[in-house]
Specification:
By secondary structure, the protein is mostly helical. The chain is 45% helix and 9% strand. The radius of gyration is 12 Å and the shape is flat.
Length: 65
């Protein structure tokens, strides 16, 4: 289910971030194919936003105003 979401997001030019997942959860995601470029991982939401903005892409729909 999450993999389908990640694939649909990628097709539409969006980035899917998993923030705050502990190592066991991250490992479970990775084993199910949720890794870059389908999904990116960050320890906090703030770090995910910072990393997304660093790519120069605002396709995430975040309001940066």
């Amino acid at each position: 289910m999450i993999t389908d979401l990640a694939q649909k997001a990628r097709k539409q030019g969006c980035s899917l971030w998993m923030a705050g997942a502990n190592p066991a959860v991250q490992r479970a995601f990775l084993l199910r194919g949720l890794c870059a470029p389908l999904c990116r991982h960050a320890s906090t939401v703030e770090k995910a936003i910072t990393r997304q903005l660093a790519t120069g892409s605002t396709a995430s729909g975040l309001d940066h105003g």
